[in-house]
Amino acid sequence: MNRLFRRGHREEAQFVEMLKGAGFGVWEFNTDAPVKEDGTYPQFRISDCLGHFGGSMDGKIEFPETYGIPGKFLCEFKTNGTGSGFTKLSSFGVVTAKPVHYAQQCIYGYKEGLTHSLYMNVNKNDDDLHVEFVKLDHELGKQLIQKAEQIIFTQSPPAKFSLNPTHFTCKFCSKSAICHEGKPAEKNCRSCINAKPVENAQWHCAVFNAVIPKEFIAIGCDSWQDITKQVEL
């Protein structure tokens, strides 16, 4: 998985090189933000839900003057393998073929006030490219952030997608055993009924009445109570 993620990062540099070679202005990093410990600037990042929801954009672009398209736009870079996924993307576009990718861009666009995105996806097997200038739906971005807020701050599990564990969606869900077989959630503060998300992306513990130190969040303590066992669904 680490090699897979690194492959994606390497492709980002290739996309930027191609865009700059075609005369685009490309901003990969937020030079208005504080410099990181390694001396580099961070990526453009959006944050919401008291810091518990967010993401990093691949960058912003500006078209060459000859295109007659003023302003800055989002750019999003993805990789894909050969198969039906890339074929569908080439045939129908990102909105239909990659709705998760489109949703991600709509959230970024809504938060940053960007109306369109240049979406680029490379086939890792044969280096084929899909490039698409897509209009972003700010209302969808807003709704998705509201959905994230509901999920982050709830103190009880959401309803099951289906009561049938053999349902297609449930069969391929990584949490199916918790939902349908009653297995416990992974023990950590985020899965504990005593913990609540608070500002600055921190967590507050009702047992100790204090903000939980970051190094303890992934561990939990002896007072841990599985949040998935609080409600019978």
- Count of discrete domains: 2
Strand order of the largest sheet: 1-4-5-6-7
Oligomeric state, counting identical vs distinct chains? single chain
Give the biggest sheet: 5 strands, mixed
Number of strands: 10
Overall mean pLDDT: 93
3D shape: globular
- What CATH architecture of the largest domain do you see? Alpha-Beta Complex
Question: In percent terms, what proportion of residues is strand?
Answer: 15-25%
Rg from alpha-carbon coordinates: 21 Å
CATH class of the largest domain: Alpha Beta
Helix content: 25-40%
Which structural traits does this protein have?
single chain; 233 residues; alpha+beta; 2 domains; 5-stranded mixed sheet; 33% helix
How would you briefly describe this protein structure?
This protein has helices at residues 2-21, 84-92, 94-97, 99-112, 138-153, 168-171, 176-181, 214-217, and strands at 25-27, 45-48, 53-56, 59-62, 72-80, 116-123, 129-135, 195-198, 202-205, 210-211. The two termini are 34 Å apart. The chain has 233 residues and is an alpha+beta fold.
